[in-house]
Amino acid sequence: MVPDCYNALQKSNDPLTIGAHLAVAGNIIDLGIGGGLDIHGTLSSALDIPFAINHIERLRADLAEYSSLFYIGDNAGEIVFDRLFIEVLKKLYPHLEITFSVKSKPIINDATMEDAIDVGMTKVCDVIETGGNYIGAPLDKVGEKFLEKFNSSEIIIAKGHGNFETLNEETGKNIYFILKAKCQMVANELNVSVGDSVLKQQN
Q1: Which domains does the chain have, with CATH numbers?
Q2: Is 186 within 8 Å of 161 (Cβ atoms)?
Q3: Is the pTM of this model over 0.90?
Q4: Which of 48, 53, 74, 107 is most open to solvent, judged by the fewest CB atoms within 10 Å of its CB?
C-alpha cells in the first residue's frame, strides 16, 4: 500500500494535509480487531472526507516556526502511515528535529520498538520508548527520557484514543491530537460524531 500512498503525496499540492489524512486513516486499523476492516477503502475515503476539527493551518504555522517535534505513536499497524507523515514533515521542514515514541513493552496492540524497526521508523527519525506499557501516555507513569522529551519539545503530536484520553487535560503544552473518534464518550468530549476524523490543537 505504501507506493499508493507515495503516489497520492506526489500528486498533491498540499502534502502536509494529505500526510495528516493518511496518518489519521491508519488510526482506524485497531477497529478491525474482531471484525472486518477495509483499510484500502478507509485510505481512499480519508483523502476525500474533511477533518471534523481541522487545525492544520495552526500546525503548518507551528512547523515553520519551531524546531522540535515529539510524535507520540499509537498502534502497531498504523505506524507505517505515521512514518509516511513524518517523511513529509522532514521534507517540508528540514530544520525540524523529530522524535517518535513507542511503548517499552507490549500492551494491547500498541507499537513497540520492534514494530518501529520493522516499518523503518528508526531510519527516518529518532525513536524512544515510553518507559512502560500503559495505555496512552500518563505522565505520572512514563520514563524519565520520555518526560524530558515531552517537556522540551515545542510541538507534540499525539496519535489515537489512548493518548487523547491521557493528555487532553494537559495545559501549557502545544499538543495536536490526531485520531478518529471511535466511541461516543470521546466523540462527546470532542463535540464531534463517532467516526469523525480530528486534527485538534489542545486549547
Answers
A1: 2-201 (3.40.50.10880)
A2: yes
A3: yes
A4: 48
